[in-house]
Amino acid sequence: MAGASAPKRQDTRKFFENLSGAGKSIAVLTSGGDAQGMNAAVRAAVRMGIYVGAKVYFIHEGYQGMVDGGDNIKEAKWESVSSMLQVGGTVIGSARCKDFRTHEGRLKAAHNLVQRDITNLCVIGGDGSLTGANLFREEWSSLLEELLQQGLIDEEATQRNSELHIVGMVGSIDNDFCGTDMTIGTDSALHRIIEVVDAIMTTAQSHQRTFVLEVMGRHCGYLALVSALACGADWVFIPEMPPEDGWEDNMCQKLSENRADKKRLNIIIVAEGAIDRHNKSITPDYIKDVSTVTKPGRYTEPQILPQKHGPLSFVVWMLVSFTMGTHHFVSSLPHQKKMPCFFCHQTQEVQKAMDEKKFDEAVRLRGRYLSFENNLSTYRLLSFRKADSELPNSSFNVAVMNVGAPAAGMNAAVRSAVRVGITEGHKMFAVNDGFEGFYKGQIKEIKWGDVGGWTGQGGSLLGTKRTLPGKHLDKIAEQMRIHNINALLVVGGFEAYVGLLELAAARDKYEEFCVPMVMVPATVSNNIPGSDLSIGSDTALNAITDTCDRIKQSASGTKRRVFIIETMGGYCGYLATVGGLAAGADTVYIYEEPFDIRDLQANVEHLTEKMKTSIQRGLVLRNENCNENFTTDFIYQLYSEEGRGVFDCRKNILGHMQQGGAPSPFDRNFGTKIAAKAMQWITRTLKESYKGGRVFANSEDTACLLGMRRRTLVFQPVVQLRDETDFVHRIPKEQWWLKLRPLMKILAKYKTSYDVSDSGQLEHVTRVRPKDSNTSTAI
Q: Which Pfam families has this protein been placed in (predicted)?
C-alpha cells in the first residue's frame, strides 16, 4: 500500500486530548414528543460522559422525572445504553410536564439536581423543552437562593452548584427549530412517509386514483414539502405558504391536465397545519370534496399517515468545557455547531410571522437554516409545467446520461435535469447505457412526461455502464455532431469523473467537446473528489444499518455472538465507517487506516473482555478492499478461534443489496436539487459561451464537477481536482469522515483521543469558497 500512488493518509490519532469531566455530573433527559434517534443521542452522550470521567445520570420521564426526583434520577453505566441504538422512541421515557411550567415545580427540580451535584444538563426535546431549559438556567441562581433560605440546602452546596450548564439537542420530527438543518427524528419520519407513499402509488396507478395524504406538521411544513419533493407530488399544502385564492380551480385544472396526458395517479400532500390566505384550515376531506365535486368522475381518497414509530457526543465536550457566561447552547447540524438558545426565540418568530400573514417572511426565517426556501423553489420549478408559449426561446440541445454503477437517486436527478432543462427552453436528450450507448448512437429526445414517476425508482432507468470514453472519442464526437449536442450533464461515479477528464483533455483535438460539461456525483461508495456526499450513499448506508440491526436481532435469545460483516465501497471506507457508527460497531477495518496482525489481536482481546460482561452482541465491519491478506474469511476465523468459549461468530457479505432498493428521501431530495442546480449552470454557461452563432467553451471552468462541500454546492473544474485524487485506489486523498473514527472507537470503549479543537465542528475543507451565488449555493 506504500509508494507514490498511495493516498495521503489522514492520521486520525493525532487529535487534541483536552476532554476532562472528572468531578462533574451530567444528567440526560428526553422531553416532549418522542422522536426516533433520541436513544442514539442518549447512548452517545452517556458513553462520552463516562469516557471523559464524568458521572452521568438518566432522568426518566423528562421534566416530570426531574420534578418528582427519587428513582426517576439514576446513575447510568456503560452497559446501561447497550442494545438501544436501533430502538425507536426513547427508552428513558418522556412526558409533557405541567409542573415544570410553574415556579414551584422548577424549585423542586433544582433541589433534586443539587442533591446529586448535577450542574450539567443534556436536554433532548423540541422548542418547548429547550425554551423551558433556558428559563430554568436563567432562574438557577434565584432558585438556589430560595432553597438556601428554606434550609433545604446549605451554603456549601450553593457554592458547589452555583452554575447550571445546559446543552440542548433538538428532537422533533417536524424539523421546526431555527438554527439546525435537521432535527433528531426528521429523517425517520420522512422515511415512514415515503414508504407509505411508494406503497400507495401502486394502488393509485392501478385504479387511476388521486390520493390526498396528510402528514404531521402543525406549524411547520418541512415534512410535507420535502416528501412532496421526494415523491414528485402534484400539489402540496404547507402552513408557511398558503395557496392563492381560487386554488381549488387551479388544482383541479392541473389534475385534469395530468389525466389528459395519461398520467394514472395524482398525489396531493397536505401538512396538518395547512391554511388558506384567510387562516381557514385546509383538510384532506375538503380537498377530496373539492376534487370530486369539480370532477365527478375522479375518485379521491384521503389518508392520514403515521410518522413516529449521528454522532452527538459533541454535547459532552461542551458541557465539560464551559466557562463562566457560556453555558446555554443548542447543538445543531450545520456540521455540529453550538448555537445560542436565542434560536428558540427565532423559531417563535416564524409562527409570529405566520400569524400576521407575513408568509414570505416566514419562509425566509425557515430558509436560512433548513434550506426551506430552496426546497420550495425547487418544488415549484419541477411540479408546474409551463405552456410551450411561456418557455424561453432556446435553440440549445442538452444531453443527460448515467455513467458507472447504478446508485439510488440517479433517476430523481435525471428527472430534475430534464424538467428544469425543458423549463429553461432547451431540447433535452437522453443517452442510454453511458458512454457505450453514446458512441453507439443510443440517443433520443426525452420529454416532460417521460420522466414522470422516476423519483422513487431505484437503479438507472437510462441504463448505465462503466465504459470510459477514451477509446471511442471519434464516435462520441460524431454523435455529438449528428445530434447537435450543445451541453452535457453526466450523473455517475468515479468512471463519470474520469470520463469527463478524458473529454476535457480531448478538446484540443475535437471541437465537439468544446461545450459546457458538468458532472453530478452518484455512487454508493462516496469516493468522488470534490464532494462530501454522493447520490446513492445515503440509501446504501440505510441498507447497511438496517441489515446490521436485523442480523443482530436474529441472534436474540442465543448465547453471546459476534458478527463479521463485509461492506462495499472499493478502497473507500466511508460506508463501513459511517455504517459502523450508526449500527454501533465494535471495530471497523478500512483501507485508509492501515492495520496489522497486532491490531487484529488487540481488537479480538478487547471484544472478548467486553463479551465477558453483560454485552451479548458484537459487530465487526470490514470494507471489501481494506487489506488483500486480512480477508473477511481470515478475520472470521481469527475471531472464532480467539473467542472460543466466550462467543461464537457468524459472517455476512452484504454485496449488491447495498446498491438496490428505492432511494432514501435524502437521496431523492439531494439528487433533485443538485441536478436542478447543474442545469441552471448549464443554461448560464451556454449563454456566456454562445458567440458567432455557435457554442464554444474550452476553458477549465466549463468542464466542472458539482459537489457538496460543507453544506454548499460548489462548481469545481475537474482538471483542478486531479491533485486531490488517488487514481490507483479511486479515492480522494483527503476524506472528511475519517475524523469520525476516533468517536466510533470511544463509543466502543477504546481509549483514544478525539478532536474537539474546532468548537465541535467536524469540518475539513479550509478552502475559501467563491462568494458569487453563481458558483455556490446552500443545499
A: PFK
The DSSP symbol for 668 reads: H
Cell representation of residue 8: 495521503
Tell me what percent of the residues of the chain surpass a pLDDT of 70. Answer: 83
pLDDT in tens, 663-702: 999 999 999 999 999 999 999 999 999 998 899 999 999 9
Q: Given 3-state DSSP classes, what are the helix, strand and coil percentages for the chain, each rounded to the nearest 5?
A: 45, 15, 40
Mean pLDDT over 29-57 rounds to 89
Q: Is the pLDDT of residue 637 over 50?
A: yes
Q: How many Å apart are CA 369 and CA 371, to the nearest integer?
A: 6
The pLDDT of residue 442 is above 80: yes
CA dist list (Å): 207 to 202, 257, 682: 9, 17, 40
CA 696 to chain centre: 38
Q: Which residues are CB-contacts of 276 (< 8 A; sequence separation ≥ 6)?
A: 242, 243, 245, 247, 282
The domain ranges of the chain are 25-170, 186-304, 398-523+667-732, 537-659
Cite the active site residues: 174
Topology alike, domains 186-304 and 398-523+667-732:
yes
d(CA 227, CA 548): 26
Task: Measure the CA angle with vertex 378, ends 208 and 234; round to 5°.
Answer: 15
| Domain made up of 25-170: CATH architecture | 3-Layer(aba) Sandwich (3.40)
Name the phi and psi angles at 530, rounded to 5. Answer: 90, 0
From CA 549, how far away is CA 380, in angstroms rounded? Answer: 38
Q: What's the CATH architecture for 398-523+667-732?
A: 3-Layer(aba) Sandwich (3.40)
Closest CA to 33 of 96, 123, 85: 96
Q: What is the pTM of this model?
A: 0.84
Which residue shows C-alpha cell 443517452? Answer: 431
Distance CA 702, CA 715 (A): 10
Cα–Cα distance between 742 and 736 in angstroms, integer? 13
C-alpha 486, offset from chain centre: 34
Give the three-state DSSP class for 427. Answer: strand
pLDDT at 111 over 60: yes
Domain 537-659, classified CATH 3.30.70.20, yes or no: no
DSSP letter string, 93-160: -----SGGGSHHHHHHHHHHHHTTT--EEEEEE-HHHHHHHHHHHHHHHHHHHHHHHTTSS-HHHHHH
- Tell me how far apart the alpha carbons of residues 421 and 378 are, in angstroms, rounded to a whole number: 13
Classify residue 176 by its DSSP letter. -
**58 by DSSP, 3-state: which?**
strand
User: 281: how many CB neighbours lie within 10 A of its CB?
Assistant: 12
Three-class secondary structure of residue 713 per DSSP = strand
94 within 8 A of 32, measured Cβ to Cβ: yes
The answer to whether residues 499 and 469 touch, using CB atoms and an 8 Å cutoff, is yes
Is a pLDDT exceeding 80 seen at residue 317? no
Q: What angle do CA 325, 329, 331 make, to 5 degrees?
A: 150
Cα 133 from Cα 344, distance rounded (Å): 11
Are 212 and 302 spatial neighbours (Cβ–Cβ below 8 Å)? yes
Residues 736, 738, 742, 744: is their CA dihedral positive or negative?
A: positive
The mean of the pLDDT values for the chain is 84
pLDDT recorded at residue 3? 36
**Distance of alpha carbon 600 from alpha carbon 587, whole angstroms:** 10
Cell numbers linked to 129? 423543552
Please state the separation of Cα 587 from the chain's center in Å.
Answer: 23
pLDDT tens digits, 570-580:
999 999 999 99
* E strands present in 130-273: 165-170, 210-215, 235-237, 266-271
Pairwise CA distance, residues 511 & 594, whole Å: 45
Domain 186-304: CATH superfamily, name plus number: Phosphofructokinase domain (3.40.50.460)
> How far is the C-alpha of 417 from the C-alpha of 491, rounded, in Å?
10
Dist. CA 332–CA 368, nearest whole Å: 13
- Which residue, chain included where needed, has cell 470511544? 746
